[in-house]
Input
Amino acid sequence: MTQDGRKLTMVKAINLALHQEMERDDDVIVLGEDVGVDEGVFRVTEGLLKKFGEQRVIDTPLAEGAIVGMAIGMAIYGLKPIPEIQFSGFAFQAFHQVENHAARYRARTRSRYHIQMVVRMPYGGGIRALEHHSESEEAYYAHTPGLKIVIPSTPRIARALLVSAIRDPDPVVFFEPKALYHAIREEVPEAEEAWPIGQARVAREGKDLTLIAYGAMLHKCLEVADRLKVEDGAEVEVLDLVSISPMDTDAIATSVRKTGRAVVAHEAQRTCGVGAEVMARIVETAFLQLQAPVRRVTAPDIVYPGFARERGWLPDADRVLRAVRETLAF
Amino acid sequence: MPRQTLDLPAIEYLSILDADGTLDAPLEPKIPPEELKRLYRAFLLARRFDERMLRLQRQGRIGTFGPIRGHEAAVLGSIYALRPTDWLVPYYREWAACMWRGWPLENLILWYAGFAEGMRLPDGLKDLPLCIPIASQLPHAVGVAYAARYKGEDSVTLVYLGDGATSHGDCQEAMNFAGVFQVPLVFLVLNNQWAISVPQSKQTRAKTLAQKAVAYGFPGIQVDGNDLLAVYVATKEAVGRARKGGGPTLVEAVTYRLSMHTTSDDPTKYRSEAEVKAWEAKEPLPRFRRYLEAKGIVDAQVHAGLEAEVDGQIREAVERAEARMRPALMDVFEHVYATRPPGLEAQREELARYLAETGQAAGQGSAG
Output
């Protein structure tokens, strides 16, 4: 495996967390389509079958509902399953299990049972993929009480966040920005690290505007902040939400109260998206400090148009830059 | 190559004690007399509870209720084949099985009165709560059975479903997974002919529901679901096979929902009185009673004694449940997460403030 100081991709970093948590706890079980022999279509589960055997690394038949439903049964028993959905676009066929049961079992049974489960799924666009392989579904889940929804933006955060998710007593939906799977490398220490669920991260400090994002969009926002520094001399603070639910309202409020301006960017379509929730929290907590309307940079409210027209769907750094400039100039 | 007939398993049908009370003696299971009496008591308890709950609903003391009249033999015959260390995954029309397993009656009354406390089952019971979305409990049963085997238990999981549930994707998925993973699991289909207003003939063109097991590579059997002995024998075989590592079985218990789907339903809209009457002639209680009378286990006096006993038990449960029906409003914020996130805590404080400032009681203390 990895040694201290070695730079890992996000795929390898998630893989490291899976290996270490499965070594640490026999109750952790991985199941899903092609996760065993094939080691996952993105190779996230590489080496697991060989090391932990087919009782713990389960190649399942092709049925998302039963993958998550079976994992729920395992969690009711007391195991800590990690079902993988091959692409988040197929998780709708398991959504009833997530919403009707995973999210509610603690409440329904007054904590007699709880669902310690991490549903992992690659999500997001930018990889020139077919329909159902490029969308962002986080808002559907964020509306559901009883769930936690997290999205890492770097390899090191991904590893530390997955460790927390696996150990969290409540169900966590872990969205993996597949555009970042191999895009960046980062030092990931061999020694254990956990990123607390519910905690955002200031990815870059600044005083003039708060740019809020998560997942792959975060890197476009960092690029925007770099360019604005060089081209305009503006200091943009970039806030990485990391945790969509629970959302770190304090981090948002602290930053926007300081800067007085905010732009939210995400890949998902706009209406009732995570950006709307971020804006609501800004209005609730930093209204009097605002010096400009808060802007959203998102996909339009359209169906994923296919990758030939993906530029019309997926906001790029230029679109974010323009919104930030206009907000700064307001 | 000529066309051939594939060698697929045939589907058995089992009946031991028929509607007239005629017993197929060689097939009779050996159930000790005191156990038969216990089963009879459970039968009476289920029926009297059903009647009492319908009255409570009509009086507005509980909410919507789904009666089980007609299902008792199928439910009790199957649950009797389980050990306490086995797992029960119910849907919502088998609370007679839940009572047999030791669920306090007051839990069911509380739950039907809108109190989530009712599904806080006592520690130690290896039972899942009732499940409302049809067929969605089936994959859970596969997971529980898988986990139990993984942890080296020799337990078996019994999951109930109705005829309507067999149309569902979750049923296909769960049965397929169960077959592939050979988990120790018994699917007990309570085929009561009607999924609210849709008869079995419109649910599937298949001649039986039991034959669906063939497609998943495990045994299926159809039994007379109004015959407690047949249901018991078939379930016991299935449970025994599962415990020995033989994988899942589908048991189809053919019965009839003699009452309405729920108290919100009017079955006269979709089925004939003649049909109901025909099934009433085959209903499970009289034949079981005649069987026990012939064995000298039950007579008029024993029956009256047991009936008084279960009526007393129900009365006390209603009293206990109603004494607990104090909505502790602030309690809605409990049991959402292990640790309440700050945003949810702020919403809790908002409601508490609103209640305090408008002079409304928050309802102190939880019902459990």
Q: What stands out?
A: The radius of gyration of chain B is 22 Å.
